[in-house]
Prior knowledge:
This protein is α/β, with parallel strands linked by helices and 331 residues long. The protein has helices spanning 3-18, 22-33, 41-54, 57-64, 90-98, 112-125, 151-160, 184-195, 233-248, 282-291, 324-329, and strands at 76-80, 102-106, 133-135, 144-148, 166-169, 173-177, 205-211, 254-255, 260-263, 273-279, 296-300. The protein folds into two domains: 3-171, Aldehyde Dehydrogenase, Chain A, domain 1, CATH 3.40.605.10; 173-300, Aldehyde Dehydrogenase, Chain A, domain 2 (3-Layer(aba) Sandwich).
Amino acid sequence: MQKKELIQAFHSVGEKLRKLSEEEISELAARAKHSNGWFSHESVQNALGGIAFMLDKEKLEQWVSHYRVPTENPKVVGVIMAGNIPLVGFHDLLSVLISGHFAAIKPSSDDQFLIEQLISWIVEAEPRLKKNIERREKLTEVDAVIATGSDNTARYFDYYFRHIPNIIRKNRTSVAVLTGNESAEELAALGADIFSYYGLGCRNVSKVFTPKGFDLRKVFPQFDTYAEVANHHKYRNNYDYHKSIYLVNKTPHLDTGFLLVTSTDEMVSPISVLFHQEYESEDQLKAVLKAQEEKIQCVVGKNHTPFGKAQRPELWDYADDVDTMAFLTEL
């Protein structure tokens, strides 16, 4: 297939996603929720909206213009997908297909339905892509692999796929940097970075850095829009559990009624908890972020990823800052 045909195919998928009705999204979410209780209507709608945002013809053209695609030497690329948030493995699948390779995919058991539904839409838009997609239980006889998982599974992937080209992703999280001069609108947008997908994504903000002496309680009213997250039973269970632990251990913390905030040097907070750390200077902050860069997916704030955009990455915002398309086109 030619580049323009591939671009048109995925643009057509984006058009389909943009035209989905609320009723259709509700039906998709209800079926997806059978496998993953975290997949609420809002989460599925957000994920589909994020993919539609990427699958724009001009964006696709801009993205692939930096690479020689499709490849003249197609390979079989294994894709091991995570299932923490809906359709989190889509970008890897898109990258493999638009670069002209064959995708041997292993979806997470937590996100099989939505991935299979999206594949059916891809094949509907361009039937010739059907031969380029195969679902496998075991990724043997592949030429390369892209695998996303936990720190524990990454060790297994590193060993198992050590003899072939690979991208192995581990646990990451995202952070926000406040200067104290943010507008109410920016702080409200930060709420989306924290609460989207109930905080389960690697692009969710799990820690906030503030200038020394800044009263973080000033930010809390801007988060009230997201108080409904506590109505989700899994989120509420996490909130109640961690609140009880903090109370029993007499751990200093702030409580909004749906979010717990505690100060710590740690990076990855549990669900329903936001970590907080003060900084005394920009140089000190840069040093802290540098020391933790292998754990940080993105930084939200002024001069960084804009507030509210952590879960709206562009096609070229690669996970772990590893250029997936460069990897694929150089195979």
